[in-house]
């Protein structure tokens, strides 16, 4: 079965992104300088916009085995829902770490008290997943740029690609999503998330990918809901 027949959307499909710097030769020497195996060239960065497809969006996103995928967006935009429903291997979701700690702590203890422990558990789990060398799908709130730098370094080290899936929903939709899950963020924190996600979204819409990303895919709520699998294959 071909990717087109199965509804899959391969990582090789999309619109080439505009480079941050003038293009350079990508021969074996240049690839080795970026941490890629000799004889393997880095793919040209791509932007794929799957928004406003009116029911014709992709059902599957397929990346190359060993690649890293970051799912980002506003709190309440549906990142955890998408990971639970579609991520091959289950993904690395900070919400899972929070749920585990919520089950251990007395109800009288506010989340702010043990938030550092939740984050430590999340990043420790991510570190273990990265050290395994396997493909990884990870939840990212968008405000921690050091996390993407970490993932970009790991992708370069293993000669793989780092791919961004960015959920583009309105603040009102995100707030509604927070209410539905019964768990929100403060106005200050939400404003910080809005600024960070908006910066990334504007840059990607102009064809400017975050540093180290091989591709970016823009999803609205309908496109995210249409996805049934975010997976990996040796040949894409």
Automatic annotation (TrEMBL):
Pfam families linked to this entry: AAA_33
SUPFAM superfamilies linked to this entry: P-loop containing nucleoside triphosphate hydrolases
Stated name of the protein: AAA family ATPase
Organism: Streptomyces pacificus
């Amino acid at each position: 079965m071909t990717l087109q027949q199965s509804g899959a959307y391969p990582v090789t499909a999309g619109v080439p992104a505009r480079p941050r710097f003038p293009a350079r030769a990508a021969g074996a020497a240049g690839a080795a300088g970026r941490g890629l195996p000799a004889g393997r060239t880095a793919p040209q960065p791509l932007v794929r916009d799957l928004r406003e497809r009116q029911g014709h969006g992709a059902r599957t996103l397929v990346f190359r085995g060993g690649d890293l995928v970051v799912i980002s967006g506003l709190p309440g935009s549906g990142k955890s829902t998408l990971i639970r429903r579609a991520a091959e291997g289950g993904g690395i979701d900070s919400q899972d770490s929070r749920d585990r700690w919520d089950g251990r702590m007395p109800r009288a203890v506010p989340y702010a008290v043990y938030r550092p422990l939740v984050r430590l558990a999340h990043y420790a789990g991510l570190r273990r997943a990265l050290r395994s060398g396997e493909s990884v799908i990870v939840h990212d709130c968008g405000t921690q740029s050091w996390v993407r730098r970490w993932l970009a370094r790991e992708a370069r080290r293993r000669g793989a690609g780092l791919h961004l899936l960015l959920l583009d929903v309105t603040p009102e939709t995100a707030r509604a999503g927070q209410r539905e899950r019964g768990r929100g963020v403060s106005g200050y924190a939400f404003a910080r998330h809005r600024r960070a996600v908006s910066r990334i979204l504007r840059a990607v819409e102009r064809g400017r990918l975050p540093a180290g990303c091989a591709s970016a895919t823009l999803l609205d709520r309908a496109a995210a809901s249409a996805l049934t699998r975010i997976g990996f294959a040796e040949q894409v």
